[in-house]
Amino acid sequence: MNLYRHPSESNTAVGQYADQSSHMVISGDAAAWTRARQERVPLRVRAASTCEERGAVIVEFALLAPIFFAVLFGIIEFGWAFGQSLDVRHAAREAARLTAVNWPADASSGVTQMNAIAAEVCGRLNLAEGATVSFTDLGGGTPSSSPDQGETFRIRVSAPFDQITGFFDWILGGVTISSTVDARMEVDGTWSNGGTYTAPACR
Fold it and tell me: Residues 99-112: pLDDT tens digits?
């Protein structure tokens, strides 16, 4: 085994080893720089994409918010209107029932009696405000006569629609809810003078 090496060979080996070491150092620095760059780039990309997503959400909300609130307030308003309509219909039926039995059973008659019936009906309203009750004798008698048993009459209850939100005021503003009931007298009546009378509005 030859353990002798020529000096030139030793220097060449040392040079090669130094070149390899420096190459490893340079390569190691480049790899570290590349990894650091790869780690930094996604952060910037994620930040930019987050800002874009936030902007898109704001734009979508601005576009959909009017539709959402229109549907929401529409459900509220029309549900409230339906409740008032049921209240007015119930009031018309109650007024017709009281009128048919010539309520109240006392000495009142004519306008006094119709005002008493209207006041009783107003007290039974739950949602509708400012309602009016109209009485019409359809029996065909003389203007000064009262309806007899079996003759027909008409009750009409009307109330202005009371909004909650006012969002649809351009549609529902000035709307009047009304209900009309035709019935027959069960007994001889004393409330009518043969025409139409509208009692004062409910308070």
Answer: 999 999 886 888 99
